[in-house]
Please model this.
Amino acid sequence: MLPRVFKRPDSQYWRIRLQFNGKAKEISLRTTDKAEAERLALPHIYEHKAKLEAARPKLETGTYHPWGLGESVQPDGSRVIATPDTAIFLDADGKFLRQESNREATMTLRTSAPLSWKNFDREVDRPKLATKNTDDDLFEEYVKFGPCVKRGRKARGAKLDPHSEAEARKMWSLFRTLVNKPLAQTTRDDARKIIAYLEASGLKSATIRRKFVYLVATVERAIVEGKLTFNPFAKLASVGDDVLRRIPLSDEDMALCWANLDKLSASDQLAFRLLAASGMRLGEVFEIGTIIEKVIKRKSQPDKTIRYVNGTEVEKGVRYCVAGMKTKNSTRRVPFPASVLPYLPAQITGPVLEGDSDGTSSRLNAWLRDIGIDDPAKVVYSLRHRAKDQLRAEECDEKIAEAIFGRDKVTMGDKYGVGYPMTVLKKWIDKIDPHQPGLRAVA
Model:
């Protein structure tokens, strides 16, 4: 419906009238053509309606933190370490007492009705730009370029993968919440507060150390770039006696797994088959079906980029995938085991597994407990330990085993060529036969 325009008796120009708070306001459209006036009136009407909507009272929801944020000392000497989600209570000696939520929902009726046309014409609720924090810039630089490679040289690295970036941002948010100091003023005691919070949250020392790496690496890069001089997080988080060493699944365990495999979804069944038959890490099997970009450098010609789906390449009739792309030491070509090929698509066009590695890990570990494998040292990762033991029993050459499972350290000789032929690796990976009980002798 076109807006209603009108002319004053003493004017040749068309006008429009807008009403607010019992008062009217007229705007000249500065045209004598009615059709053009109706078109010119539309933006004024849309803007006016938007302002009317913004001026209406609104019920807003929010969050209240009853224990505040950061660390506080209570009158009895006990301490509270509070994050936006959780409050951890410690006694005067630092012993964990309890944990409770630090979030309460709030509802507020916001009324911002202007009292005059002058106020009404101002922009409503213009968002304020967040103040830029120099430390945030250092963190974003780390996320963008990755950890530095070597001290004394310009910091070089690789951009964090999505999972690592998400974990890094969680740790950065925790640092900003618990410490809330510039990095240049952060002390090692401040860093220990973060460790104390993570310990009180029930995390093992190995997990804490893995999470702490993101803070260490952020400051390390800044030091290499000459922007900081001291790393308060370095060499603080270490692996303690609480580490639970993983052990391989036994023949009896594997028999239980195969007998109860139908209790898993089709995607989780395929994940288990891949893990049991190849010894790959769970995160690595989730790389199958993702896009890989390979840059081919040519003399006197622009570099050529080839994009292909991981798992579609074939060498001498052997189908294989690229695993361990997160680090140079782990990146390798892994042939698909014969026992898994019948369960893979004939043509891989996208991810072969559903969901993500974290969710799948939780489901598979819970499934192991449900079917009677209740030893806490036996988890999904135990399949990798079992696969390594099987190749050792087959007297597989250590270099070939490293090519299948990933190298601990890359030597100069490893940098030449593309590695073992797929036909060689295929022969050995098929000796990791998850359907055969026991460790077979070499035929």
The first strand starts at residue 6 and ends at 7. The radius of gyration is 31 Å. The CA atoms of residues 8 and 14 lie 8 Å apart. The chain is about 35% helix and 20% strand.
